Amino acid sequence: MTAPTLPPHSSSDTPAPATGARPDTGTPAGPETSGTPLGQALHTQVISWFDANARDLPWRRPDAGAWGVMVSEFMLQQTPVSRVLPVYEQWLDRWPRPADLAKEAPGEAVRAWGRLGYPRRALRLHGAAVAITERHGGDVPTEHAQLLALPGIGEYTAAAVASFAYGQRHAVLDTNVRRVLARAVTGVQYPPNATTAAERRLARALLPEDERTAARWAAASMELGALVCTAKNESCARCPIAAHCAWRLAGKPAHEGPPRRGQTYAGTDRQVRGKLLAVLREAHAPVPQAALDRVWHEPVQRARALDGLVADGLVEPLPGGLYRLPLT
């Protein structure tokens, strides 16, 4: 398979780093630097593997642009690629630029989000589109600080868009990358439940010096975690860095930290919220309370879920016991 090509980086829009500082944060490299034999081996072998094995995903193609990359990053949070692909394609067909989405009511973003889950991401993406239109003339900004200042965008998404869309040098730490670094470098089976300062230091220290190579490394290490160094049933025989993996070389010691958090859904408030939103997504007029009452048998949990949707701005209550997706 031909590896996807990162879009060109517009260096004229990127501020020069301070003297002697890393381009991403100004933080000096730690003990495991990109220039060590280990760092060089990881970069070379993982990127070579990625060149031969990367999936051909629409947001990796040059014509996806920064907006396509941003949309994918919002959708892929806690949602597998197979579920994202059809919604992503429909979304970009309808709203090919941020300004197209910004013109719509936020409820339309929630409607188009469908069953991807965690629908507040749709509201945040809509808010980001409005801000991009108002502050940046409708173009996704190139500077990391400007991306980070957009509503609904945190450190990970800002770094991912800057790296994948503009070829910049940033540590992109999603769950897959954290797992790869935990095993290959730290020698443990799983990273902590929440990203730590030590993980960020390690990720920055392992960044290749060259911007283009660093962007490629970010995408390649993420793909390795998604396809080979998976949470369960990892495929060490197919791993390009198995010979360097500290966890494998130590005999794959079992995880000793806090229990891994499992994600339950059936019977939870999340499931009830999803059922309530499904009714509102399918309706193009305000929905009476009775129609919502029919989707879940337990009234206390149903009321709690509906109150949560209203508090999150996903549902607007109207006089007369009616509800709709938000217009403002």
Please give a structural write-up:
This protein has 328 residues and is an all-alpha fold. The protein is 50% helix and 2% strand. It is built from 15 helices and 3 strands. The chain has helices at residues 37-53, 65-76, 81-94, 98-102, 106-113, 120-136, 144-148, 155-166, 175-186, 197-205, 211-227, 246-249, 269-282, 289-293, 299-311; strands at residues 287-288, 316-318, 322-324. A 3-stranded antiparallel sheet has the order 1-3-2. Strand 2 (316-318) and strand 3 (322-324) form a beta hairpin. Helix 2 runs antiparallel to helix 8, helix 5 crosses helix 6 (120-136) and helix 9 (175-186) crosses helix 11. The protein starts with 36 loop residues before the first helix and ends with a strand.
Task: Please give a quick description of this structure.
The chain is mostly helical and 328 residues long. The chain contains 15 helices and three strands.
Please trace the helix and strand order, writing H or E for each element. HHHHHHHHHHHHHEHHEE
Count helical runs: 15
Strand order of the largest sheet: 1-3-2
What is the subunit organization of this protein? single chain
What structural class do the secondary elements suggest? mainly alpha
Query: Proportion of β residues?
Result: under 5%
Distance between the termini: 45 Å
Low-confidence stretches: 1-32
Largest beta-sheet details: 3 strands, antiparallel
Counting DSSP E segments of at least 2 residues, the number of strands comes to: 3
Please tell me the overall pLDDT.
89
The portion of residues assigned to helices is: 40-55%
Shape: globular
Radius of gyration: 22 Å
